[in-house]
Every structure is written in structure tokens, then in C-alpha cells.
Amino acid sequence: MNNNQYHMLINGELLSSSETFPVVNPDNEAVIGHVPQIESAQVELALSSANDSFAAWSSTPLAERERLVLAYADVLEQHKDEIVDILISETGKPLDNAEYDFGMLITCLRFFIEEAKRIEQPVIVDPEGRFHHYIQRQGLGVVVGFLAWNFPLLNFGYKLAPALIAGCTSIIKPSQVTPLATLRCAELALNVGFPKGVINVITSNDYDVTNPLLTSDIPSLFTMIGSTNAGIGAMKTACTSVKHFSVELGGNAPVIVYDDAEVKKAAHDIINLKYGNSGQVCVSPNRCFVHESVYKTFLEEAKAHAQGLVLGAGRQGGRLMGPVINKKERTRIIGLIDLASNAGANVVLGGKIPADKPEGYYLEPTILADVTLDMDVAKNEIFGPVLPVIPFSDEDDIIALANDCEYGLSAYVYTTNLKRGMQAANQINAGSVCVNEVHYAVHLPHGGLKQSGVGKDCSRYSLEEYMTNKRVSILVND
Q1: CATH of the domain at 198
Q2: Could you write out the DSSP letters of every residue in 333-379?
Q3: Which of 83, 133, 349, 472 could join 124 via S-S bond, C-beta 3.0 to 4.6 A?
Q4: What percent of the chain is predicted at pLDDT more than 70?
């Protein structure tokens, strides 16, 4: 494959198009590749090929699907260094973050195979004893998946793996900002022998061209990872026929650090999560509520830990934090910092473009103290390396403050009081609540409440969304 020209995978073939668009390295602003701008006829080909291949793929025994999926995971691992380098170049990730991103694709492929062997098809008791009733689980149909740019391969794994293993065929569109590693992974699927049309990976930055993927009556499930506004828009467009939806959207995660918390651990945990992937994480802590009695200590510990970060991408040493994804995003984030500062927030650390990084879209890791809830930096998802810290007192209803948000994806609580931790977890409206340590894993369901989406990624709950829930009744005693 030409290092600068990438191809889509449609109906078992690598395809280009008459137009392409560039992909830029956020570490140095260099154009690193060109990808096809899909054409309308190719969109129709992706839909028809996925539809045509569904019947055979969904009836393929699980053991055969397992053989192909595990072979695919092995092929990807054999090309790990190449894929990780592509991923670093298009995202600006440090090596450890890129390896995690890649590793989650492999983990998802292997996890969902094992989970499919445990899927339940329960028998339902017939009160009169005349019927044998059971639930049959089969592949739902054609899946259309739109991915976010922040974790390209993790997102690919979240959507492709359960679709493949459930017996669905798929059309996946990676973000136009970070499509390269995903396209390379799609190309490597040709080495395995999947039937034509089972995996289709396309690229576009023109929604007018790709909207037929949503408006067509062929897809049974539309799934995506992205912003709430993008998700609402896509679901509106897709409501031309009855479809299933599974969408993981925006977040504005609260942190509650109580007065009895292990403050140093809390500060280190939150800093590690906040600046992981340069704050470009849907579950990133966004509103950090700290009890006034430990507020100063928390800020000191957080600042000291954040100061150990080194700005840089790829394989260089140190505790690295990479750039944000592009100039537009950096400008937006700096605007939030400036608005907060002008409104009375105290910039404890960072807040500027680093003087020693004239190239790339770098931004200093930033901590804002004395943030108030009316500031945009607290009301809106930041999606960047900025931690707003908000003091609270015993007089505040801290759970109500944490819940005072349209989003409900993730939340974090730090306390040594078990009762308090359990009560907070019970009362916070979020799809996941981590108490005293940040923890995410493929066997744990991931998804939001309120405007953070519907459905789940990861775990058996995700796999079930790609399968039917068909009731079968057989007369056995007339």
C-alpha cells in the first residue's frame, strides 16, 4: 500500500475514489496521508454488499466466526508496530496511549467471541404445559457505525467486534480526522478470508454523501460514538424507517472529593485521567468538586502531579501528554480558559500554548481553581486538558450539584466512608460511577444516561444489542 494513499474496504475489495481529502498530524501539522471521499455509488455498493452477505454470515456457525475473528486478531497483532505508528501520526498520541488504543481492538475481538458462547437463550415456563417457549438470539442485520476521532481503534473494536460475532454485517465510518489506522486494519482483514461484504470500512467528510447510510431501510442498527449534537442529528436523519440505536455521546463528568477522602490518591487519579489523551476522553473528569477543608491540599497535590507531565508524542520518554487534535479545538479550549479567568477563576497551572512547541496543536495542562457553576468551562464538556476545580461545603447538596447537568455518562467519588460512597453511587445519575479509583474494562458495560446516549458498549449488554430477542413457541402437548 502507498504510504500516502489509503483505500476503503467495500464488498471485499480495496477502493479509491475520484476525490480525496488530507489527514494531518497534530504533533507537527504535516499532511501524512490522503483518504477517499466516498462516492454515492460506493455508498450504495456498501449497503447492498452488507445486505447481500448478511444471510450467509448470520447462519455461519459460531465456531467458524470464532476461527476468522481470532485469526484477524492474530494478523493485527503481527502488524502492531506498523499500526501503532500510523495511529501516533494521525492522533499525536504518546506510545502508551496508542498501544492501549490498539490493544482494545484486539481485546474486544477476543472478548466478544467468548461472551457469545455464554449468551443466554432462556426457556419460558408455559403455565398450561402445552408449549415449549424459548428466546432465540440471532444476528440483528446490517449495522452502520460512525466512530469518534479520539480513540480510533478502541472505537473500531467497540463496534466491529460485537457486530461480527453476533452475525451482523457492518459498514463502519471512522472519523475523517483519524481514519488511517482503521483503514489499515480493514485492509488486513483481507488476509483472513472474511466473506465479501461482511466488513465494509468507508471514509468521507461529506455527510450529504453518506446520509443514505442512515436513511436507507437496509440497516437494522445505527451505532456511533460522538457528541450529543452529532448523535441527535444522526438519529433524526435515520428515522426514515424503524431502526435500533446504540449511541455513546457527550459527557460532563463530575468528581466529588469528600473531606474524608485520601486526597493525594484522589488528586493523582484525577490528574492521570484528566490529561490522558490530552483530556480528549468522553469520561474525562470535567467538574471537580472538592470539599473546602481539603481544597488547598487537593490543588497542591494536583498541581505537583500535573507538573511532571512532558508535552510530546510518540516514542519519546517521560510522562507524555500529546497535542489536542487540531487548531480549531485548541482555539475553542483556550476560549473556555480565558472566559473562566476573566470571570474570576484562578489559573493554577498552564492555560497557554507552550512557547517551546511552535509546531503542533499543543496546549499546557491546565488547572483552574475557584471555578463557579455558571462558567462555560463547568457547564460544557471541555474535551481538552483543562481541570476546573470547584469548592463545596457541608451546606451544599453536592449530589444535586453533580446531577445538575444534561449529561450522565460517568462520575467519580472519593471518600473513606463506605456508607457515603454507596449513597453517592446510588444517587448520582450516570451510566458509570467509580468510587475511590478510576476503572474501565471490556467486561463492564459502558454507556450513558440522560443526553449521554442510549445503549452500551463493552460487556454482554453490548453484544445483546446486536442480536434479536425472538420468542419461539412450539406446541408439545396438544
Answers
A1: 3.40.605.10
A2: HHHHHHHHHHTT-EEEE--S--TT--SS-----EEEES--TTSHHHH
A3: 133
A4: 99
CA 251 – CA 295 distance, rounded (Å): 24
Instruction: Please answer whether residues 219 and 143 qualify as being in contact, where contact means their C-beta atoms are separated by less than 8 angstroms.
Output: yes
Tell me, what's the pLDDT at 90? 98
Do 382 and 286 form a contact (C-beta atoms < 8 A)?
yes
Long-range contacts, 291-298 (Cβ 8 Å, 24+): 291/257, 291/258, 291/259, 291/261, 291/391, 291/392, 291/393, 292/391, 292/392, 292/393, 293/259, 294/257, 294/259, 294/261, 294/263, 295/389, 295/391, 297/263, 298/257, 298/263, 298/266, 298/267, 298/389
Check 90, 115, 185, 248 and give the catalytic one.
248
| Separation in Å, CA 376 to CA 58, 147, 366 | 48, 26, 15
CB 198 within 8 A of CB 164: yes
Q: How far is CA 169 from the centre of its chain?
A: 20
Using CA atoms, how far residue 197 sits from 16, 200, 262, in Å, is 17, 6, 53
For residue 272, CA distances in Å to 130, 152, 302, 411 come to 59, 20, 10, 15
Q: What is the structure's pLDDT at 244?
A: 98
Q: Tell me how far the alpha carbon of residue 231 is from its chain's centroid.
A: 13
Active site residue 300: no
Q: pLDDT under 50 in the chain at which residues?
A: 1-2
* Residue 354: inside a domain: yes
Supply the pLDDT for residue 1.
39
Annotation marks residue 248 as catalytic = yes
pLDDT at 3: 54
Query: How far is residue 289's CA from residue 401's CA, in Å, rounded to a whole number?
Result: 9
What confidence score (pLDDT) does residue 4 get? 79
421 with 467, same domain: the answer is no
Whether residues 244 and 277 fall in one domain: no
Which of 108, 282, 288, 405 is catalytic? The answer is: 282
Amino acid at 163: A
Question: What is the pLDDT, as a whole number, of residue 2?
Answer: 41
Res 331: pLDDT:
98
Strand partners, 123: 134
Domain that holds residue 378: 253-450
How do strand 244-248 and strand 449-450 relate by DSSP bridges? unpaired
**Residue 3 belongs to some domain of the structure:** no
| CA quadruple 49, 54, 59, 65: dihedral sign | positive
**388 touches 340 (CB < 8 A):** yes
d(CA 307, CA 365): 8
